[in-house]
Structures are given as C-alpha cells and as structure tokens.
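The protein record now logged underneath.
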Amino acid sequence: MLDRLPQVADRILSSGLGTTPPAADLPADHFGEVLPAIYGCAHAFLRAVDQQRDFTRDDVAAFVGPVIERHAEDRLPLPMLMEAVHLSAQQVLQEAVALSEPHEVDQLVDFGSRTLELLMHINLITVEGYAEVEQSIYHAEREAKRALCVALVSGQPAEEQAARADTALAERYAVLAVQLRAEPQPTAAANLVVRRRIRILQHALDRIGGATALHTFDGESAIVLLPSGSGAHETTAAHLATELADRFAIDVVIAEAGWTARETVPEAARQAAEIAQLARLSGRPTGVYRLDDLLLEYQLTRPGPARERLADRIGALRPAPHLMETLDAHLRHGADRKAAAAEIHVHPNTFSYRLRRIAELTGADPSDPGESRLLAAALVVHRLRPAPTTPAGS
C-alpha cells in the first residue's frame, strides 16, 4: 500500500466524498486541500503498521486537526463529515483486502484493528474540533470587525464598533473592492462554498494586514479596508487578486481606490465597487483595475437618454443569446472571423449567417467599422445595466 499510496489516497478522498449532496455538488477543488493531509496521515499510519508500533492520537491530530478546524470554520455539516470519514475508512480496508494473500489473514485482521483505532481517533478529534470552534470567540471577533467595516463604508459613527472589535481606528485606509466572476452553486453547496471563500480571504488578509484588516466579503464581493501602518503597499492588491483567483479557481477583479482619509472612505468605497463591477461585467481577467482602465465603460453607463438609446439598439438580440455570443466574439476578434467562429464552436459560414442576422435585427452591420463601434458600445451598456423585466404573459 505504501508503494501505491498516491493512487490509494485519491481513491480514499473520492470514496469519502461520495455522491450525496451537498458534497457531490461542491466544486472539484473544494476538498483539494484535504488530499495532502490524507496522503501524509496514510503514509505515517502505514509506516507505523509496518514497524508494529502504535499510531497515537497525537500522531493523528498532527494531520487531521488543521483540516477539521477548516471544515468547522466553513460549517461543513458534522454528519456529512463523519459519513465521509467512515466511507474513507471502508476504502482503506478494501484496498488492504485487495492486496492481501490467503496466508496473510492474521496480518489483515491486525491491519483492520489498527484502522478501526485510527477511525476512533479521527472521530474524537473531529467532534472535539467542531466543539472548540463553535465555542470560540474567534467568530464573534470577526463579526465585530465586519460590523466595523460596514460602519466605516456607510459613513456611520464607528467608535462603538471599533471598541467592540478591539480595533483602533486609523486616520487613513487603503480601499479595495473585490468581485468574483462566480457561477451559481447548487443550493445545498452554496453556503459551504461561501464560507470556504470567506475563510480563504480572511487568511489572506491576515497575512497582509494582520489583525487590523477589515472586510465585508459575502462570498462574491467585498470592500476591504487596510489601515495605514498595516504593511500594505502598491503590490498588495495584485498579490491578493492572484492568490484568490488561484484558490477559488475563478477570475477575481480588484478595484483600488488608494489611500483615503477615514471620512472619505464611503465615497472611495462606492467608486471602487462600481469600477470592480464594471471590470467583472466587462469580462476583464484577474487583476487590479482603476478608473483609467475603464473610462469608456464608466462613461457609457452614466444615466441619460443616450445610454437608453444605446441599450435599445441591441434589444432585439436579448431573446437570442447565441447572437449576443456571436456579436461579442466578432467584436473581440475583429477581422479574424475564423478565430471568432472557432471560439464559440461554430462553422465560419454559420458565424457569417449570424452576423447578417444581427444586422437585420439591429439595423447596424457588425462588418462596418463605424457601425461595429456603435454595436460595441451598445453591448457594453447591455452588460453593465440590468435588462428590463418582461411582463408575465407577453
């Protein structure tokens, strides 16, 4: 089993996850951080079996404890986790049986006994770990800091919230707006995904700004406040965007408003949030954005009759998502129609037909440079403002 451990560890994890919601509905990478713990624990356990020595509870806790703490912080349902642990233990026994010979029955019985003892240790560590996290004031402190951040962002008096959070108010803050390009999750898994994302963001901010960093993250968007003296610098936002995108496996855009006085935090946060939303809805990749990066999008979305008229130019395409997709690919690839068609997986002739259909419906020819610019502006407005609700029965 030691020789085959990488493959065995993968099967142990897969067996533990099973097919029961919400585990089966979670993203593939949600339990990625568990695999190294399974591998390390299994390796140490098998070495102990091979050397005929005890694998103590302290030995188990060194591998299992940190994982249990993360699951508890994410509020992964305890029954689901216990079921996963037992399914994983069954997989370990099945692996042992598959590798054993008829004359090794005594060794197999001893291995089974040791595996049950390992399972007992994991169960106890799991239950106690969950109880510790539930009783900890850790979460209360974080909620107090979140309330402080909300007060600062909304321009409300923050002295009382700062006292509850045991955090000194700073004269200046670096204001960041974070937005994720996230896909909707199944209901059963959504809360687990959100809690995991919040934990990951919190740990990243702890490293950047220590205990003084504040945020309002809800799993998809956040305002982050880094007080002066927290160690934040010009590359902080870029590092944060890259780290979060890597951990979440989705694009993460951050708008940076820079350093601002405490009394001007609300206005800086409002503008940063709007810029981050523009970057996300415009399909920008992971990175840090400022107003100068999105001047066109920002101006096109200012209220006024021109904005409404622009949006109406492609109103006829709204019931046809495939035409919207075609227009978007055409605008990004320009004259390279073959590349644009390949991106959306259609034949070039089909792509050309769709462009003609777009011209018929909108009255603007995507192949004409001037009219193409008009359609590009209309598409920007369409993306960045809510589509009107269609009346029932229409």
